[in-house]
Design a protein that fits this description.
The structure is a homodimer of 581-residue chains.
Chain A (H helix, E strand, L loop, with lengths): L2 H22 L4 E2 L4 E2 L2 E7 L9 H13 L4 E5 L2 H7 L4 H13 L4 E5 L2 E4 L16 E10 L8 E9 L3 H17 L1 H7 L3 E2 L10 E2 L1 H20 L3 E2 L5 E3 H7 L1 H4 L8 E3 L2 E5 L4 H8 L11 E10 L15 E11 L4 H18 L6 E7 L12 H18 L3 E5 L8 E7 L5 E10 L1 H5 L4 E2 L5 E2 L2 E10 H11 L13 E5 L5 H13 L4 E3 L6 H10 L4 E5 L1 H6 L2 E5 L3 E6 L1 H13 L3
Parallel strand pairs in A: 11-15, 17-18, 24-25, 24-26
Antiparallel strand pairs in A: 1-3, 2-3, 3-8, 4-5, 5-6, 7-8, 9-10, 12-14, 13-14, 15-16, 16-23, 17-19, 19-20, 20-23, 21-22, 26-27, 27-28
Helix pairs in contact in A: 1-2, 6-14, 11-12
Amino acid sequence: MENNKLHDIRHSLAHLLAIAVLKHDPRAKLAIGPVIDNGFYYDFLLSKPISETDLPELEKEMRKLIEAKLDFIGAERPKAEVLKMFEDQPFKCELIEDLSKEGSKLTTYTTGDFTDLCRGGHVKNTSEIPVDAFRIERTAGAYWRGDEKNQMLTRIYGLAFESKEKLDEYVAMREEAEKRDHKKLGRELDLFIIDEKVGKGLPLWTPKGTAVKFELEKFARELERKYDYEHVSTPYLGGEELYRTSGHLDHYTHSMYAPIDMDGDKFYLRPMACPHHIRLYQRKPWSYKDLPVRYAEIADYNRYEKSGELMGMIRVRKFQLTDGHIFVTPEGLKEEFKRVCNMIVEGMKGLGLLDIVSYRFSKRDPENKEKYFPDDDLWNHAEGLMKEALDELGLPYITALDEAAFYGPKLDVQAKNVHGKEDTLFTAQMDFLLPQKFEIEYVDADGQKKRPVMIHRSTIGSLERVFAFLIEHCAGAFPTWLAPTQVAIVPVSEKFMDYASEIYNKLKAEDVRVELDSSNETLGKKIRNNKMMKTPYLIVIGAKEVEAGTITAESRDKGQIKDLKIEDFVVMIKEEVAGRR
Amino acid sequence: MENNKLHDIRHSLAHLLAIAVLKHDPRAKLAIGPVIDNGFYYDFLLSKPISETDLPELEKEMRKLIEAKLDFIGAERPKAEVLKMFEDQPFKCELIEDLSKEGSKLTTYTTGDFTDLCRGGHVKNTSEIPVDAFRIERTAGAYWRGDEKNQMLTRIYGLAFESKEKLDEYVAMREEAEKRDHKKLGRELDLFIIDEKVGKGLPLWTPKGTAVKFELEKFARELERKYDYEHVSTPYLGGEELYRTSGHLDHYTHSMYAPIDMDGDKFYLRPMACPHHIRLYQRKPWSYKDLPVRYAEIADYNRYEKSGELMGMIRVRKFQLTDGHIFVTPEGLKEEFKRVCNMIVEGMKGLGLLDIVSYRFSKRDPENKEKYFPDDDLWNHAEGLMKEALDELGLPYITALDEAAFYGPKLDVQAKNVHGKEDTLFTAQMDFLLPQKFEIEYVDADGQKKRPVMIHRSTIGSLERVFAFLIEHCAGAFPTWLAPTQVAIVPVSEKFMDYASEIYNKLKAEDVRVELDSSNETLGKKIRNNKMMKTPYLIVIGAKEVEAGTITAESRDKGQIKDLKIEDFVVMIKEEVAGRR
């Protein structure tokens, strides 16, 4: 089925919904009824309320209309006539006035006794609408024209697809996505909280969340060390002159918070750490032999976000980016950029995210240059180099125009979330501009002072965002190395507590993240609780284990492992963790 | 020699300095000449400049005056007479006016031909002044009465002690302290920078400094895990309501920065993390069986400091505290506090700081209660408990009145810096107040809701401050486990670079912090450079080593270790690091 056809079905269903609502409440006033990406809605000012329990009735009524095989008949009409037709419908009258002011034609669509003001896009006859591929699913409040100064209307949402199979598939996908939602799992698995008193957009990592965070930090730093980065540590504040020089105060203030006065000087919560790393670079002279100089930091960043745009760990006001800046000679740029790409792929693979990740080569729009640093030669050179690098690596990528940074092209690491929506996880960028602004230098083989190029890049993105993607991707069932609790010990009863404690202490001494369930719940309840927490291994301790001096481990992913010596279990789990499985 | 006698000598020397300066510049105007803790100074408005090279001449003149055995003769005089005597000395006239306004007596002291306005405190005769125990050491600018709106004067400083031995001892101590100064060593050993563009009071840790920082973090976290803390991670910002509830906005604003607006809400750079940890505690209900709950975090803190009070890594505007908060039942408080003390002692021992650390039990001043949370019974109880805990541990401590926190008594871990000055490194505090303010609870064995007590405590203090103390204490020669570079490899010439690289890679693969010196310097220069950096081990690679397939390690602390296999060296250094030596 073509997209237009699906659009027409959804749009026609909106009209049928209006008919059904008018039958329920003949005095209802109609606002608008557009198509959305999973169906349609219609906004009404009702004279008697509609509750969720009324929805099946509306659906039934709509099915009758479908089975009645009604035509959709469009007609263009003069303003006076349309105003007359909708004299009882104040919202429609408002729309009619607006449309005529714009000089638009006025069209109506009639289905049986019902006529709506509508620009069209409908099926010819209701018989074209699959009778089992839609569902009226919920109501919500909505202001007329989205403006909170206007009247509050009732919005009724419907899902609609080409077939029952497609509808069922969508509903199942959405249920799964809801189950995997990182905000929901974050609460259920006790990974993080967002607390109104601490502040919106400022998550707090609980002990379990922090355990995952530390593993992610360790992972990023090991990778960085392997790729010859040096770690640095710089403050999340920066003086006015710093961000004046960098140009952030000219181009980036919309994402920055207002400055703070410190005894007469102005300081900003930093939006980026590049100027800090540049000032570190500038603390001493460098020779071409020292380059590339690679600085990495899990850096605190702050971004201005409106309350309404905050979202769990995905969009926050303060985050920690696995950040890094490379100072490289122009001659070394391409090879170094390839090295960065290899590192990124290795990182995504290590985290098990390769499946949901894709790469976007973001270029300047040559038709719309004013948004970009003005130097055609430099842009052509940089984009050419980046293309060569990507092609030589054989990295599969798409090209996107007008998505570059102000100062250069970039590679965006894109990830799809469980709702199918794509987000940028992090980027790698070439930058010829900041080195100029800060006048950074190295001494070349010929003894001349030259200007290095910078690469801005992240290792695995912000800890917050990658954590959210990981939670959703594995539905909270983290691989053992990342799991907040790796082993839960469940004694069958109080009697076996001594042996259970012994096992607990042995595992803790080996740095295994282990919990001992000493609650008074029944065994069944204890096992269910720990399974709900998606712990990779449960060790149930009963008479048999105490007698034999062994354990039985219930693996979340691999079934039961019986009669194991604790020492062997330690070897097994440590191997798993070392291999980051 | 009594302190008074030393004071009189120093004061008398100030007069002799004035005589010497007047001989050099008869038109000089005299301001004041007080005693300071290592000698004295005198402020002059000179008509001809005095440079450092003139100082020996002044000293010589003063020695002559000492040998001339002149008397110091005091006299009380009427105002008119004194004004007349000092009619050429405008600063003295100003002082005379002020003194008479205060109703003070006016006294003068005469030595030979010279008379100064002076309240006294002198030797009877210059022969009492040891002729070889003072030194005129430097000049500096100083405003009359310390006010920058007034005239700039020349201040001449002198050192003076009871004997030549005491003077030499003081000078040697000061030289040593200057050599150990963490700001100086921080620069020389490339550990951190303070950059004017980034901002005063906001140090940046270089790669070498960050290596030490990571070791300190690891040390603190291991210790915290050993003592059953759970790690959490919370943002350095907090909403207005949070700090309203905690009382920080009533009692602590002088140390806080102005709030930042985030889309209509006010946020503060947090001065403390207790409210954040409390909100984490409050995310779920707790039973008495769960307590103590111990949260630890290397937490970002911000404190308002005036520019003039900033000092290297010791006093900064943003720091990271090895922070922690314990929620404990009132019954468990004493034992838990002892546990905290044991942990602190273990931490200071592990860092090798026991020698410079002492403990101060800081109590409320019962005569001056208005500064403190008003509840006598609670104070008596808390101070009693803390005393019992300290006494039971046998921890040597001094008691200090009026040094408690607003909300409870505390144990201050005091450390002496190389200049002999004592500073608080960190504290452990009992707190009954915040649990009330936030209404935090647990369910006791009897099913009743009760209020826990909080302990605020640090593990090893702020990373910045403890780093500064460590640098100064070991004069930059860090023990191997903390050393930014643990091994430097120095090939005798380019020829041995391959073997040197092989050794380098083997050490790097074992996570040893190793550097390969590939500079074009002479061998001697390379060795000197690496010794200046105080690297624990130098490995010099020449023909002999390549031939034998061994290495020779030059230990900074233990002399030469010859003909070692690299594998044996790895075992040795890893043992050293694991043992934190």
